[in-house]
Prior knowledge:
Order of helices and strands: EHEEHEHEEHHHHHHHHHHHH
Number of domains: 2
Mean pLDDT: 87
Radius of gyration: 22 Å
Shape: elongated
Strand order of the largest sheet: 1-3-2-4-5-6
Amino acid sequence: MTQTAPPDKLIRLRSSRDVVAAVPHLLGYRPRRSIVFLNTHADAQVSTLRVDLPEPAPPAIEKKLIASLVGMLCKVPEVSRVLVVVYAEGPFDAGGDVPRASFVRPLIGRLLDSGFVVHDALCVADDAWGAYDGHDAGIPHRLDELDETPLGADGDPVAADVAELAALPTVGHLARRAFDAAIDRAIAGSGAVRPILAAEQALALDAGTADSDELAAIVPVLLYPELRDAVLFTWAWGAQRGLELLDEAERIDAGEVGPGDDTIALDLMGLGDAEPPDHERVSRAIALMSRIAALAPDDVAHVALTVLGWLHWSQGRGSVASRLVDRARELDRSYGLAELLQTVLRQGHLPGWAYAMPGD
């Protein structure tokens, strides 16, 4: 799976050690079997692009994989230089060379041929870390050298792996029963639904302290695909975008907008011209939906997991989104948005805005 992080971190990379130590703080977890591209931009900003480390393959296949990776990196705008960190399993000096050197060195060559400035290429193995090139190529360094937090990353939480990042809060049986009853009350009293207002009210909640009825109020809205999409647009881009979605949906129903002119689905899947979602709003929505997904009964949980998966995907966290959407599909194979997202995720597709600089 692919993952990006926007260049909103101001981390100082003064050495190769800083580069490797920064990766978990930029991604939010400690990667395994991965290639991470750290892309530096103006004003010391750093963005990341993480992909799964491919299994060893014949040279012709690896050549195609390398071309695909470089093409993906070409989508990231205004990169001043690239640093590559490979996470490989096994000992650092297995086979007499740095792990996966036969794949990584041609990758570096292709990056250079494509006009990228490659500042460093490093590897983290199970017992040591080191460089693929330069004066200290192949020399192992102790992993405990990476424990010091790089300048600018202080306080960033780091999960052990993707599974921990995708984990839902722990809730008790009584809390789940109370939330189930609250959903029934919310559905019974929903009446005329105002999805934009409901979305904003839900976003204003403190997910950790809100009671069952406050959390459940958004559930009836999420059960209707058209209203759910309006909530997603509102959380990601603000109330005005949510209202625009509802207006376009009405015009589609009235036959005023044809299938080829429908921008809702394109923006929802990151294929349109939408700006990057508001990171702070989406982060609050993720906290909210994580709590709701943990509390929800199975007949509702697939909706909450899918919405949560879309929110993570909108932030470039494809690996996290994939785990959540897979869980949703296990609960309900017929849920349309989960099926669509799963297809998109298995193709390694990320929304176009995931590669864009904030404000571009």
